[in-house]
Each structure stands twice: as structure tokens, then as C-alpha cells.
Design a protein that fits this description.
about 160 residues; alpha/beta; Rossmann fold; globular
């Protein structure tokens, strides 16, 4: 690479390394009783360029809890209003699952009351997104949580 400046040489090397080094794709669990909403969330997560790999689905908290016992997730996105076990009950149960204790949980729901937000945060949610949402909403709330999880894993 004759004639390259120090900056362009460094940029080229970083670009080369990024293409050569394997990047861990993030595993996400999406929990909502509506299959349509689950698909919208999946599509939005991929559009947000959050380096998402596997996205698993659950239709309620009980199903999600079973999946959390079988798999490790980098992120859990859940609704609140669901049959069998709602999102708040799921959040409370996740506190007792060792493999999920450092997994950020984001609540996406139609609830707009401050009380609903407070209850979700007290139960362990790390972020709260109101429906309807945009890809930008997801990215702004989720990207910092995933970066923080990555930094915590390095320590």
C-alpha cells in the first residue's frame, strides 16, 4: 500500500480486521402474544443494524421462561399484557434464573401510564418502548444496553 498516509493505513487495517475477525451475532428472545407484533419486532431489530443473529419467539412469559432455561440470550424484548404469564411476572421470574441475570430486558407495550413504566422498571426492565415504535426507537434504547453488556462481559 505504497503512498498511504498513516491514517488511511490504519483505517485499511481496521477494515481488514473487521472483515476477517468473526463477530458474534446476538441471540434475542422476542415475547409477545401477537405473532404479527413478534414479526414486526424481529424485522425492526434486523433493520436497526444491532448485529442480531438468532431471534427466538415466545407467545407468553411461561414459554419464554422455558426458553431462557434452555438458551442464553443477549437481549429479551417482551410485551406486558400476555396470557398465562405476563411480562411483569416474567421479569420477576428472570431474577431467579442465573443465566438471565445480566441479560437486558426491554419492554415494548401499548401501556402509556407512568405507573406502568415504573412497575416494569422496578421489576427489572432496562428500557421501555411504547407501541407504536420505530426502528430508531429500538436502536436508541437497545444499542446502549448491548454495548454495556459487551463491556461487562469483557471485565
Amino acid at each position: 500500500m505504497a503512498g498511504c498516509t498513516a491514517f488511511s493505513q490504519a483505517a485499511w487495517e481496521q477494515s481488514y480486521l473487521q472483515r476477517r475477525l468473526p463477530v458474534k451475532k446476538r441471540r434475542v428472545l422476542v415475547v409477545d402474544d401477537s405473532s404479527t407484533i413478534r414479526k414486526i419486532i424481529q424485522h425492526s431489530l434486523r433493520q436497526a443494524n444491532l448485529n442480531v443473529g438468532d431471534i427466538l419467539e415466545a407467545s407468553n412469559g411461561r414459554e419464554a421462561l422455558g426458553m431462557v432455561h434452555r438458551f442464553t440470550f443477549d437481549l429479551i424484548v417482551t410485551d406486558i399484557d400476555m396470557p398465562l404469564m405476563d411480562g411483569l411476572e416474567l421479569l420477576e421470574a428472570l431474577a431467579y434464573v442465573r443465566s438471565a441475570q445480566n441479560t437486558p430486558v426491554v419492554v415494548i407495550t401499548k401501556h402509556t401510564s407512568e405507573e406502568g413504566v415504573l412497575r416494569a422498571m422496578e421489576a427489572g426492565a432496562r428500557a421501555y418502548i411504547r407501541k407504536p415504535f420505530t426502528v430508531k426507537d429500538l436502536s436508541e434504547k437497545i444499542e446502549p444496553l448491548l454495548a454495556e453488556k459487551l463491556e461487562t462481559a469483557k471485565i
